[in-house]
Fold this sequence. Notes:
With 253 residues, this protein is mainly alpha-helical. The chain folds into two domains: 14-87, Winged helix-like DNA-binding domain superfamily/Winged helix DNA-binding domain (Arc Repressor Mutant, subunit A), CATH 1.10.10.10; 96-241, GntR ligand-binding domain-like (Four Helix Bundle (Hemerythrin (Met), subunit A)), CATH 1.20.120. 67% of the residues lie in helices and 3% in strands. The protein is built from eleven helices and two strands. Strands 1-2 form a two-stranded antiparallel ribbon. Helix 6 (124-142) runs antiparallel to helix 10 and helix 7 (146-163) crosses helix 9 (177-187). The protein is elongated, with a radius of gyration of 20 Å. It starts with 13 loop residues before the first helix and ends in a 17-residue tail after the last helix. 33% of the residues are buried.
Amino acid sequence: xxxxxxxxxxxxxxxxxxxxxxxxxxxxxxxxxxxxxxxxxxxxxxxxxxxxxxxxxxxxxxxxxxxxxxxxxxxxxxxxxxxxxxxxxxxxxxxxxxxxxxxxxxxxxxxxxxxxxxxxxxxxxxxxxxxxxxxxxxxxxxxxxxxxxxxxxxxxxxxxxxxxxxxxxxxxxxxxxxxxxxxxxxxxxxxxxxxxxxxxxxxxxxxxxxxxxxxxxxxxxxxxxxxxxxxxxxxxxxxxxxxxxxxxxxxxx
Length: 253
C-alpha cells in the first residue's frame, strides 16, 4: 500500500490534490473496491500533508460515493466506486468555475503577451526546446498518460515565458504554477481537450519559430479562448447560472 501514494508537491489546495490522487488510484485499479486505505496518520505521512487535509479529502470522496468510512474500522473503497467517476466532475467543476475563469483570464493577459515576445526574442535553442517539449506532450497524449501530458503542457507554457525575455512575466506565471496545474488537470478532463491542445500548441510553436509576432499572439489567444469556450459549454450542462456571471467574452487583441 505504501508504494501506491506519492508525496504531493504543490502547496495549494492539497485536499483537492489528495482527492485527485486517490481517484486516480481507484480508476486505474491500484485501489480496488472493498480495499481498506491506510490510516489517516499514514496517509498524512505518505502524501506529506496535514491530517486536516486528509480528513477533508476523505469527506469529499465519501460524499461522491468513492470511499466509505466505517467508524472504528477504517476507510474503504466503495464497491460501486468506479460507477461514481462522473460525480466528481459534476460536483467539483461547477463549484470552482469562477476560480477557473479568473485564472484563464489572467493567463490570457500574460501568455498572449509572452507568446508575442517569444516570437520576437527567442533563440534557435529555445525554439528547439519548445518543439522537444511538444513531442513529449504528444507522446504522453498518444499513450493516454494524462498526468504526464498535463505536466508537459505546463512546461511548454513555461518555456514560452522564459523565451519572452521578460523575467517578470516568467515570475508571475511560475508563482501561479501550483494553481495552474490544478486547473490544467481539470481542463484535461474535457472531451478532446488534450488532442485539441496539441494542435493549438503546434500553431503557437510554428508562429514563434517563424518570428511571427502577430501570429504567435493570435495563436495563444485562440488557445486560451478555446479552453474558456469549452469550459463554459461544459458548465452550462450542469450549472446554467454559472455561465451567466455577467462577464463578456474576451475579444481578440
